[in-house]
Design goal:
This protein is α/β, with parallel strands linked by helices. Helix content is about 30%, strand content about 25%. It has a single domain, classed as Rossmann fold (3-Layer(aba) Sandwich). The protein contains 6 helices and 9 strands; from the N terminus they run βαββαβαβββββααα. β1, α1 and β2 form a beta-alpha-beta unit.
């Protein structure tokens, strides 16, 4: 298994997904946009993961590599390569497929529940409700042909699916303690009071069970995209 990671900042890595890749003897390869890495050919890639970051998908003048990344995502999707977008990555997938990305009515930072959105089409099925980690200020319209998978009180479009091999998640199932430390260190200024913004102490007070339940659901998502299971 060959996994390509599109990484936008050094402090937002794949977290618990690394264990899933290692357990399968997979090879991890990175395109680090913050280090001006070029995008290689997509040949032989079994999974493409677009990670998070503090920039907006609309910041193409400041970060011109966003244009190339969206093109690469479109190409990967057209070629049938499984694509997982996480937070900024989900917004990039949505934008690459023609959807609008814009500021959400409220920032959502912290441990908040998401709810499953029922669908008549075959798709990954989230638990009816589950608390997950969020850190985003923007949201997206659903791309054409996408299936809406999850929502929250603070953000309507939390997850979507296109076909079986493309899934976008606004939230971070892969979150670990080390990853949270990096995000807080670099994004502490985002922790301004709001209805869906927790304090730093609240972020750290989450029990280990919230991390582990997210990791388990992440494995389910990856297995579904790999064709191992039909979801929950």
């Amino acid at each position: 298994m060959k996994v390509r990671v599109f990484q936008h900042v050094p402090f937002e890595d794949i977290g618990s997904i690394r264990g899933w890749v290692n357990d399968r003897g997979g090879d991890l390869e990175y395109t680090r946009f913050y280090a001006n890495d070029p995008i290689p050919a997509l040949d032989g890639i079994d999974l493409l993961i677009a990670m998070g970051g503090p920039m907006s998908v609309n910041d193409e003048q400041e970060f011109p590599w966003l244009v190339e990344e969206k093109q690469a995502l479109r190409e990967a999707i057209a070629r049938g390569i499984p694509v997982l977008g996480i937070c900024l990555g989900s917004q990039l997938v949505a934008s690459a497929l023609g959807a609008r990305v814009y500021r959400n009515p409220a920032k959502e930072i912290g441990w908040f529940p998401i709810q499953r959105v029922a669908s008549a089409t075959p798709s990954f099925s989230f638990p009816e409700e589950m608390t997950v980690f969020h850190w985003h200020g923007e949201t997206f319209d659903l791309p054409p042909g996408a299936t809406h998978l999850a929502k929250s009180e603070g953000c309507t479009h939390q997850a979507f699916q296109v076909g079986q091999r493309v899934i976008g998640l606004q939230f971070h199932l892969e979150m670990t303690g080390d990853a949270l430390q990096g995000m807080v260190a670099h994004g502490r200024s985002d922790l301004t009071p709001g209805p869906y913004v927790q304090t730093e102490s609240e972020l750290w007070s989450a029990p280990e069970s919230l991390y582990s339940s997210g990791h388990a659901l992440m494995i389910d998502v990856l297995a579904y995209m790999s064709g191992v299971t039909s979801g929950r």
